[in-house]
Automatic annotation (TrEMBL):
Keywords: Nucleotidyltransferase, Transferase. Residues 5-124 form the Cytidyltransferase-like domain. SUPFAM superfamilies: Nucleotidylyl transferase. It holds the Pfam family CTP_transf_like. This is Glycerol-3-phosphate cytidylyltransferase. PANTHER family: FAD SYNTHASE (PTHR43793:SF1). GO terms for molecular function: glycerol-3-phosphate cytidylyltransferase activity; metal ion binding. GO terms for cellular component: cytoplasm. It is an enzyme of class 2 (transferase). GO terms for biological process: teichoic acid biosynthetic process.
Length: 132
């Protein structure tokens, strides 16, 4: 059983997220998503439209996702990789190189982001330029 993990806020779920999750799942047999808590979002200076529970319900409804856990901080990835016996860590390429420290524990793969869509762009188009 090849286990894959990825991390994110996944707010205002869109096809860029789905494409990432689909490709991540295809790299193994079981996909874990560590979903940023509302408190961690504040640390990332991200304000999500949906709260953690709402974002969790949406992710759990996606066929590619097998388990959703909470991401409470930057420092939990090594423990998660060990605890869930993860084979592959996946993130979009906007994080290229940032998580290479995990390479002694698992494969680290950065997948190309889907062009032309982002939660920030959606907010800007809905709420105007100063949205973040
Ligand atoms: N993504 C993508 N294409 C897009 C938008 C997002 O492939 N058009 C990917 C991102 O690269 C990321 C995932 O979807 O791998 C989730 O995106 P965010 O919710 O923005 O994640 P982020 O806030 O970058 O969280 O500890 C890591 C952080 O929690 C990453």
């Amino acid at each position: 059983m090849k286990r894959v993990i990825t991390y994110g806020t996944y707010d205002l779920l869109h096809y860029g997220h789905i494409e990432l999750l689909r490709r991540a799942r295809e790299m193994g047999d079981y996909l874990i998503v560590a979903l940023s808590s509302d408190e961690f979002n504040r640390i990332k200076d991200k304000k999500s439209y949906y709260n953690f529970e709402q974002r969790k319900v949406m992710l759990e409804a996606i066929r590619y996702v097998d388990l959703v856990i909470a991401e409470e901080g930057w420092g939990q990835k090594e423990k998660d990789v060990e605890r869930f016996e993860v084979d592959t860590f996946v993130m979009g390429h906007d994080w290229e190189g940032e998580f290479d420290f995990l390479k002694d524990k698992c494969d680290v793969v950065y997948l190309k982001r889907t062009e032309g869509i982002s939660t920030t762009q959606i907010k800007k188009e809905l709420y105007g330029e100063d949205a973040n």
